[in-house]
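__Protein archive entry__

___
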Amino acid sequence: MPSSAEEAIRAQVLIVDDEPEHAETMADALRKPGHVCTIVNGKAQAEAELAHGSFDVIVTDLVMETPRSGMEVLALAREHQPGAAVIMVTAHGDIPTAKDALRGGAYDFIVKPLDLVVFRNLVQRAAETVVLRHQNASLRGQVEAAYGFEGIIGDSQAIRQVIESIRRVAPSQIPVLITGESGTGKELVAQAIHRHSKRAERRFVPFNAAGQAESLLEDQLFGHMRGAFTGADRDREGVFEYADRGTVFLDEIGDMPLSMQPKLLRVLEKGEVVRLGSNEPRRADVRFVSATNRDLRDMIKAGTFREDLFYRLRGVEIALPALRERREDIPMLVRHAVGKFAKELGRPMPNVSEPAMMRLLGYRWPGNVRELINVVHQMVVTCGDEIALRDIPPEVRADDGDDSGSIGSLAGVGLDRLEKEAIRQTLAMTDGNREKTAQLLGIGERTLYRKLKDYGLR
């Protein structure tokens, strides 16, 4: 934080006061350390400035044309300048209203008559807070650009849609069903939803419903009372009570036994759980996020999954793409994982050769991102200064892919055909984006354009 006037932050300050002399006195006090002040003399003028200007700090008198004028300016500031800090200036008798303003989003309030030194310091602290917020937001943006959103790595259209869905649904209370193949990152998405929700300060409790005996499953989810069964020597809360006011992530929800599904439905509908050995319902306020790699609609038709439970769980569905459906993200995923594992090993980050990257791009990745990360980990452990074709595990190196004409099926053919096929497939995976295609192939856009003409590709 600044330690002298010379180092102080220079803020854009809007002063709203229906007493021109008082407003000028405040402005003069703030201009000395270098703040830029704009003065208006009422709510109407303030609204125009807030709608079209840009301010770091807004200082407004609480009582002007009406006793509520300052509160109305606060509301306008929240609407037009949500990043600004609002300071209320008030008389002694209006302190309760000023405290209401704090609850409404004001930064602080100061009581008349003003001590100009205290006032100047308060505005300075508010300006520093605003700048720090901007810096943190910028840093988050840089981190997301370099490392992905909440650990979700990729820049494909499919992944951008997933991230946008997370941003939209996270602040609500609506249940979310995440679908996708194994290894696509369903728990990562569930964690991101929780961290961007209003429950972020509470617990995120993951629970896997697969492969558990029904009696044990019920005990873990709902808990039990002392004496409910042999060995139950004390009361025990289940997952739902433990996660109260937080988020429960039910993974492999398609494996939930049919007989357990009505009990789960009760929690969703009424927010109540009944422990084993008890008849007394207990409140459990939890946000539901579920995941499955199975087709629940087929299970409904087969009578193994309740339709009413499905629609309760599927308030919003987020479908995760398989890695083969977003191959353009593979280079970013590989570089991220290589850097991560190299750092863990305390060694320089190795380069990935173009032939190795093309082989990784051509593989079908049945295990999705989870398999890719494991393969990269193995390569970083065993490679030298560069990850070459020989460092790729044999099953990946030898795979012919799942598409006719894939890169892996072209061994032994002419280099021209290999190059043409590499360009064709990379164009297809980037939806015709020449800039991304050139980056993935490691060539310039002009070179790519020439080769497209040479090979008759569009």
Remarks:
- Residues 51 and 80 are 6 Å apart (CA to CA).
- The radius of gyration is 30 Å.
- The chain has three domains: 5-139, 157-319, 324-455.
